[in-house]
C-alpha cells in the first residue's frame, strides 16, 4: 500500500533506523559520490519533501525524498520502508528541476 506524503511523514517519525544491504550501501557512493551517512542525514534536516514514486512501486512501495545533508548538499533519495526501518535504494544529487522545487519549498516554509 502506498502512503500519502503526510502519512509517510508520520511513519518516518516513528522509524527506528536504517537498513542497508551490500549492494545499496555502495551503489550510490560509487555512482554519485553520495555516502551512507549523507543519505541518512537527509531525513533529519528541514525542509524534507516526500512523494510517492508511483512508477517504481511495482514490487514494493517506493518513495522519493528531496532534502539536504548536514553540509548543505541537496540530494534525492529513493527509499522504501521495511517495518520501522528506512531502506535506501539509491541517492544522487538533485537535478536542476528538483533544486527548483526544493528552493520553492524552502521559500514557503521559511527554512534557509
Question: Would you mind describing this structure in some detail?
Answer:
The chain has helices spanning about 5-15, 20-30, 35-40, 95-110, and strands at about 15-20, 50, 65-70, 75-80, 85-95. The chain has a 5-stranded mixed sheet with strand order 1-5-4-3-2. Strand 4 (about 75-80) and strand 5 form a beta hairpin. The protein has one domain (about 5-110). It contains 4 helices and 5 strands. By secondary structure, it is of the alpha+beta class. The mean pLDDT is about 85. The longest helix is centred in the C-terminal third of the chain and has 14 residues, at about 95-110.
Strand content: 25-35%
Largest sheet: 5 strands, mixed
Morphology call: globular
The number of E-state strands comes to 5
Strand order of the largest sheet: 1-5-4-3-2
Low-confidence stretches: none
Structural class: alpha+beta
Q: Quaternary state, please?
A: single chain
Question: How many domains make up the 3D coordinates?
Answer: 1
Number of helices: 4
Note the gap between the termini.
34 Å
Q: Report the C-alpha radius of gyration, rounded.
A: 13 Å
Helicity, as a percent range: 25-40%
Mean pLDDT: 86
SSE topology string:
HEHHEEEEH
Amino acid at each position: 500500500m502506498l502512503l500519502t506524503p503526510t502519512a509517510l511523514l508520520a511513519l518516518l517519525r516513528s522509524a527506528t533506523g536504517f537498513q542497508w544491504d551490500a549492494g545499496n550501501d555502495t551503489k550510490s557512493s560509487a555512482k554519485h559520490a553520495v555516502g551512507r551517512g549523507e543519505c541518512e542525514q537527509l531525513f533529519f534536516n528541514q525542509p524534507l519533501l516526500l512523494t510517492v514514486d508511483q512508477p517504481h512501486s511495482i514490487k514494493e512501495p517506493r518513495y522519493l525524498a528531496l532534502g539536504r545533508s548536514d553540509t548543505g548538499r541537496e540530494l534525492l533519495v529513493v527509499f522504501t520502508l521495511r517495518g520501522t526501518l528506512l531502506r535506501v535504494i539509491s541517492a544522487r544529487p538533485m537535478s536542476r528541476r528538483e533544486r527548483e522545487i526544493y528552493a520553492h519549498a524552502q521559500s514557503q516554509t521559511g527554512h534557509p
